[in-house]
């Protein structure tokens, strides 16, 4: 582990222990540390980004169950945007979002209001490496998703999370998402999760 990463982790310990573009947009967010001021960045990455493979490796390591939502076919037909958080050129978190009509993902006709098809921003991939949690990275990524959804005129921002992902729940609840727990069957097993929705209109 390099010195800078160690400093960031030690700082955290001292404190407290879901747009396809060929360009990259960058914003520096400062992380306060009593030993040394460091910052992480959040960028928009496309599949053509030179370090896109680093994102995939982080995805496979931290939340491998989300890989089908990134490499599968479903979201190939709708606009998507990938936000990647990096520190010292290491991928420490990410959020991928799709802009889609409300309804078809649940095998229902598109939902309309006053003759207009309503759209939603759906978070389908989101994670922060465990050693970088509770430092505002996840919240900053979620805030990016909220801003994009509003910019695109979406009716709502939505996501789904397994019931055991408590850290994810805390981030979303802290941002004002509504929550609806649910149980469904997968391969003859009962699976518990939570639907999160934030109205934007």
Strand order of the largest sheet: 1-2-3-4-7-8-10-9
Order of helices and strands: HEEHHEEEEEHEHEE
Number of structural domains: 1
Give the strand tally.
Answer: 10
CATH class reads Alpha Beta
Provide the residue-averaged pLDDT: 84
Helix content: 25-40%
Shape: globular
Compute the separation of the termini in Å.
45 Å
Radius of gyration: 17 Å
CATH homology-level superfamily? Gcn5-related N-acetyltransferase (GNAT)
Provide the CATH topology.
Answer: Aminopeptidase
Please state the structural category. Answer: alpha+beta
Biggest β-sheet, characterized? 8 strands, mixed
In DSSP terms (H or I, runs of 4 or more residues), the helix count works out at 5
In short:
The chain has about 200 residues and is α+β, with helices and mostly antiparallel strands. The protein has helices spanning about 5-15, 50-60, 65-70, 135-150, 165-175, and strands at about 25-30, 40-45, 80-85, 90-100, 110-115, 115, 120-130, 155-160, 180-185, 190-200.
């Amino acid at each position: 582990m390099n010195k800078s990463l160690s400093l960031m982790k030690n700082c955290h310990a001292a404190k407290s222990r879901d747009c396809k573009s060929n360009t990259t947009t960058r914003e520096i967010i400062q992380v306060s540390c009593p030993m040394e001021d460091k910052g992480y960045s959040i960028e928009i990455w496309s599949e053509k980004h030179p370090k896109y493979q680093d994102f995939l490796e982080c995805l496979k390591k931290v939340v491998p169950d989300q890989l089908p939502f990134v490499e599968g076919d479903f979201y190939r037909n709708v606009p998507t945007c990938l936000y990647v958080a990096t520190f010292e050129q290491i991928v420490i978190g990410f959020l991928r979002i799709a802009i889609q009509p409300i309804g078809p993902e649940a095998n229902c006709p598109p939902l309309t209001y006053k003759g207009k098809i309503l759209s939603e921003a759906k978070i389908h991939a989101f994670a922060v490496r465990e050693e970088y949690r509770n430092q505002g990275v996840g919240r900053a990524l979620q805030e990016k998703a909220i801003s994009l959804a509003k910019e695109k005129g979406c009716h709502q921002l939505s996501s789904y999370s397994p019931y055991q992902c408590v850290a994810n729940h805390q981030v979303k609840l802290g941002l004002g998402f509504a929550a609806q727990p649910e149980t469904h069957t997968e391969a003859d097993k009962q699976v518990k999760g939570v639907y999160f929705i934030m109205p934007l209109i």
